[in-house]
Amino acid sequence: MWFDPNGEEMTDEEWNTAHAKCLGMLLSGDAIDVRSFKNEPILDRTYLMLLNAHHEAISFTLPGSEKVRWETVIDTTDEAGFVADAKQFAAADEYDLGARSLSLLQLATDAQGEARSASWRKSNKPPLSALKKKPADTPKEKPAAVEPAKPATPAKS
To answer: Tens digits of per-residue pLDDT, 7-34?
Structure first.
């Protein structure tokens, strides 16, 4: 599943919004479609990857039902990358995602199915598609080409 900064599943309109610079991707460990040689389902942990390509920090509403808790694993705003003292966040908490960064959170509760839902508390932030493009996000025009200066010709005597 793909989430917008409001903790909602991304819509087709949001995917086509040129100025959308932040999203989350749920990697669901219990939805793997692979089986062992004994025909048992192979399970893994569930992760939430948050990406911010914007030049400013963005507040990201964490998805999931009320039972869901997330724990930080990687935060690229931290020099070490891997988080030594993992912090826990509840679904619907606002997670501060640094400018031009990636954060990886893992599901900290046994609520795999409930992690695959939009945030239970609706955010007050406008959807991505409602945001207007800021002037700083508009491409700048290229300056007009300037012809190189001609070398000076020596004076004849």
So the answer is: 999 988 888 887 778 999 998 877 667 7
**Number of compact structural domains in the chain:** 1
Backbone CA torsion sign across 40, 42, 44, 47: negative
Which of 90, 92, 54, 98 is CA-nearest to residue 71? 90
State the burial class of residue 7 (Cβ atoms within 10 Å of its Cβ: 0-12, 13-18, 19+): buried
pTM of the full predicted structure?
Answer: 0.69
Structural domain including 40 reads: 2-116
In a domain, 78, yes or no: yes
CATH number at residue 42: 2.60.40.1180
